[in-house]
Amino acid sequence: MKERILIIEDEIAMIRLLELELSYEGYEITIASDGLVGADIALNENFDLILLDLNLPGINGIEVCKRVRAVKQTPIIMLTARDTISDRVRGLDTGADDYVPKPFAIEELLARMRSLQRRLQLKETADVLYAKDLTLNMVSHYVSRSGQEIELSQREFELLRCLLANKNRLMNREALLNLVWGYSFEGETNVVDVYIRYIRMKVDEGFSEKLIHTVRGGGYILRD
């Protein structure tokens, strides 16, 4: 599946350049040339990265970043001709992950994107697991989806953690039972089905996009 990038930019030449180069690199591109429209798309769809201009019609990039960060942790790289220290600080303090001043070489942007992806992968394996708009912090045990906190029991937390750590991978009941309940557990394997139902009610109920899927005869998979 192609990685999705949302470009929120109002300069036609820059839009064409980014769309051409990033499509060539294999990304699926969505364009918004207005801050309000871009924020709405970012909040209602899932993207692997947002490239965000600072000076936009509607609302500026700082406000877009604030609105996205209030709900999602989608990676954001700011692109702007304003390259003062104060501009960089504002963007990063608002929640942007990186800042690339214009004009830039496309090779530099691609390198920054790869670097950001590596940092996020390290962060994910260290403390936080992600799938779409679902996050699970293994240190604080804080779980949320679309910015809404989800309260889980300890067993529910461990089961969800296991599914997230193995996202996009089919996990059969026996594997989940051993990983979450332990090899010494002597109860029935249907306890897994019961707890999957519990966490589905908390993680997927009320959302049009379901993350936890049943594979008949196989087990369960959490799809990113």
Automatic annotation (TrEMBL):
Source organism, top-level taxon: Bacteria
Sequence ranges assigned to domain OmpR/PhoB-type in this UniProt record: 126-224
MF (Gene Ontology): phosphorelay response regulator activity; transcription cis-regulatory region binding
Modification sites for 4-aspartylphosphate: D53
Chain ranges of the Response regulatory domain: 4-117
GO biological process: one example: regulation of DNA-templated transcription
Coiled coil: none
A cellular component annotation (GO) from this entry: cytosol
The keyword Transferase is assigned to this record: no
InterPro entries tied to this protein: CheY-like_superfamily, OmpR/PhoB-type_DNA-bd, Sig_transdc_resp-reg_receiver, WalR-like, WH-like_DNA-bd_sf
Keywords: DNA-binding, Phosphoprotein, Transcription, Transcription regulation, Two-component regulatory system
SUPFAM superfamilies referenced in this protein's UniProt entry, alphabetically: CheY-like
DNA-binding region coordinates: 126-224
Record's protein name: Response regulator transcription factor
Annotated source species: Paenibacillus anaericanus
High-level lineage: Bacteria, Bacillati, Bacillota, Bacilli, Bacillales
